[in-house]
Amino acid sequence: MKRADAKGLRDLLLGGLLLLGVAACTWQGIKPDGDNTGHLYISGESAHVSDARIAKVAAPYMKAAFFDVDIEALQAALAREPWLSDVDVARHWPDGIAVHVTEHTPVALWGKQAVLGANGRVFVPDAASRPHDLVELDGPATAGLKVYEQYRHLSELLNGQDVHLARLALDARGSWTATLTDGLELRLGRGELDERVQRFIDYALGDDQARTALATAGYVDLRYSDGFAVGGSRAADPKDQEKGNEQAA
Questions:
Q1: Confidence band (pLDDT; 50, 70, 90) for 239?
Q2: Domain positions in the chain
Q3: Which fold has domain 108-248?
Q4: Highest-confidence range of 36-45, 124-133, 203-212, 231-240, by mean pLDDT?
């Protein structure tokens, strides 16, 4: 080997070793001191999941060194909190973890225990935090937005008649059942919901005698092509009872 070639090879090797040494020093220089990750930064708003609760969930993960914190596992653990709709976890230089949370906005009760969020997701909070002043909806868990949108649409049709929906349910066969705030059940079936509700408005609510007859009926079956059937019984609306008592007095 020529002397010039040998010298070039030696310089190349020395340069490589020097580069590795610099990289190692750089890594040691940026690695935070201490065994634990010292700070937890929490942002976002949540009325049902406190910062203390988030810190408690995060505590086991914060025992690891900065680069060893299992970000994905921590994010998954926080996402199991029912009221949290979105969770984002990231490292916060030089020795912290940043957690940003978004809470569900409840728009309806769902079934007997769950709640429907504005994003269409169904979640199950603890009984103490479950709202009580929302419309009651039900159906397949994946049909949340569909049922809610149908509820809003039917409500618009009925509200002009001083009639309001208290419940709306979609069963596994695709059949709809609505219940008014006075307890009257409307059996709507699987199709032509607008036409059937309009028929109820025109021929049941639009006629004083028919409306009076419905005061104690249990249900109206609107699944007929040219009419409806009335059946069952229920307790009279408390407001109507009060009016009757006042008139009697």
A1: low
A2: 39-103, 108-248
A3: Rossmann fold (3.40.50)
A4: 124-133
Q: How far is CA 173 from CA 117, 177, 186, 198, 235, in A?
A: 24, 12, 17, 23, 30
Q: How many residues are there in the chain?
A: 249
Query: Which three-class secondary structure state does DSSP give residue 170?
Result: strand
Q: In this model, does residue 195 exceed pLDDT 60? A: yes
Pairs from 204-208 (Cβ < 8 Å, separation ≥ 24): 204/228, 205/161, 205/163
> Can you give the pTM of this predicted structure?
0.77
CATH of 39-103, one of 3.10.20.310, 2.40.160.20, 3.40.50.2000, 3.30.450.20: 3.10.20.310
Pairing state of beta strands 165-170 and 176-180?
antiparallel
Kind of pairing, strands 165-170 and 185-189?
unpaired
Query: How high is the pLDDT of residue 57?
Result: 98
Which of 209, 211, 208, 149 lies closest to 180, judged by CA? 211
Q: How far apart are CA 201 and CA 146, in angstroms?
A: 23
CA-to-CA distance for 102 and 212, rounded, in angstroms?
A: 48
> Residue 64's pLDDT is what?
94
Q: Do residues 140 and 126 lie in contact, with contact meaning Cβ atoms separated by under 8 Å?
A: no
- At 234, which amino acid appears? R
What percent of the chain is modeled with pLDDT above 70?
80
